[in-house]
Amino acid sequence: MKQIKVLVCDDSALMRRSLKKIIESDPQLKVVGTARDGEDSVAKARELLPDVITMDVLMPGMDGITALQLIHEEKIAPVIMVSYYTQEGAESTFEALALGAFDFVPKPEGTISDMAAVHHDIVDKIRAAARPGVVRRLTGKADKRSRSHVQRLGPFPRSTGRNTGRTGFRAVAIGISTGGPKTLFDVLPRLPADLNAAVFLVQHMPPKFITSYTRRIAAACAMKCYETEAGMDAEAGCIYVARGGSHLTLYQKTDGRIMIRSPRKPRDRFMPSVNVMMRSVLSVFGQDTVGVLMTGMGDDGARALKEIRTKGGITIAESEESAIVFGMPREAIELGAASVIAPCWEIAEEIIRAVSS
């Protein structure tokens, strides 16, 4: 099996050694070089042509974001940002994602030995970034819009109006993971402020980054956007971003209002879990649920999306054409869970169409 060549870029010699040890614990991964700052990173990337690059965000001289831009423009390799759990680190990380980074891995606060906590995250994301077509998807979306197409697998079901008649609106349940922080900005800002639905979003992300990410979504969208809090009411025209470390579930009061809950059970690999969120939304909204599953590793959400479709809801899966990591949506498509398959830049229109059907 061909080894995946990795370039490690960080201004700390200790961090470079720690990352090298973690990366090479997987026999398929090989660190072919290290760089100490942005300028060195760009030079080594051009020289070594690695398959994947890990990039520190905050470095002296040329920082990681500037280096990312140069590497991205030259389409050398996917870049995974490595950032501390700080406000400055979070904002810089999201800027990097908007500029074309594949994804990010947080550096835990504390000593170098604490990097063991993100060992599997680093390895998994490097392996995902090295898959064929990732650079093309990260850099070529604008060129493909004129050629994109939407696949509809049967007519949209018509709502009975049972739930919309009681709550007055529908629900859109979106699940997304690796590659999501950038991809969602092809969708959410295109939803109108008067969309007659509440949008419930699970983005797999370290909890300490959720607040900053929610603020960025709110600034970019016509819809109102909130990080979920237990006890808040869900309303149409609003996006609810699941808080990290707990699930996003719903409860319908006797007067018909929808209340958000944030339980920590059931225990799941992902907290929040897309499957848990979608099933809870379905239990309240029934066939007035629109399920959306987008880029990400693994299969979280695929089974719940199938349940939504089986019970008469409209389900949308991101197509391989745009998915940075075609894992979660592929699992859903193979299960027969998707009634619509579309690239990310078409998904907002499909959501609007589904809510209006």
Looking at this protein, list some descriptive labels:
357 residues; 36% helix; Rossmann fold; single chain; 2 domains; five-stranded parallel beta sheet; alpha/beta; eight-stranded mixed beta sheet; globular
Report on this structure.
- This protein is α/β, with parallel strands linked by helices.
- Helices cover 36% and strands 21% of the residues.
- The strands form 3 sheets. The protein has an 8-stranded mixed beta sheet, sandwiched between helices. It has a 5-stranded parallel beta sheet with strand order 2-1-3-4-5, with helices on both faces. Strands 10-13-12 form a 3-stranded antiparallel beta sheet.
- Strand 14, helix 12 and strand 15 (314-318) form a beta-alpha-beta unit.
- Helix 2 runs parallel beside helix 3 (64-73), helix 11 packs parallel to helix 12 (302-310) and helix 12 (302-310) crosses helix 13 (328-334).
- The N and C termini lie far apart (49 Å).
